[in-house]
Amino acid sequence: MNESSDLAISADVLMNITQLAVEQVDGVRPTLPPARVGEILGGRRARGIVIERDGDDVWVDLSLAVDYGVEIPKVAAAAQSAVREAIASMTGLVVRSVNVAVESVELPEEDATRG
Fold this sequence. Notes:
Helix 1 (11-23) crosses helix 3. The chain starts with 10 loop residues before the first helix and ends with a helix. 17% of the residues are buried. The chain is α+β, with helices and mostly antiparallel strands and 115 residues long. The model has no long low-confidence stretch (mean pLDDT 85). Strands 1, 2, 3 and 4 form a four-stranded mixed beta sheet that branches. The protein has helices at 11-23, 37-42, 72-91, 109-114; strands spanning 28-30, 49-54, 57-67, 94-106.
């Protein structure tokens, strides 16, 4: 086996891992900022997730919406833990920080549709 093989993990993979990890936490979701022209033309749209990487170190910033009635510190900590564990276990990268900004409180979808 060749010990000098390289492995590249794209930024899109880290974004997808982060988004899927956040979606596993009940009561939170990444916010969807207003679309920029480049995102509309390119068919991609950022989802309240910013990831910076320097070598094997990763920093994650999350902008989240939470459901009305949830305990915000508890779900924010759960989101941080889920993202940290998912990135570390799937990529072997070192997650230096997962910062959470709660930007909105929303009614759960089933309550919002009832009006």
